[in-house]
Amino acid sequence: MNNDSKETETLLEALKQHSCPNDVSVMVAPTFVNLQSSVNHLSNSPVEVVAQNMHQAKNGAFTGEVSAQMLQSIGVKTVILGHSERRAYFNETNSLLKEKVKTALDSGMQVIFCFGEELSDRQSSNHFNVVEQQLKESLFNLSANEWSQIILAYEPVWAIGTGETASPEQAQEMHAFIRTVIAQHYPEIAETVSILYGGSVKPANAKSIFSKPDVDGGLIGGASLNADDFFGIVTAF
Question: H or E element: which one contains 73?
Answer without folding.
Answer: helix 68-73
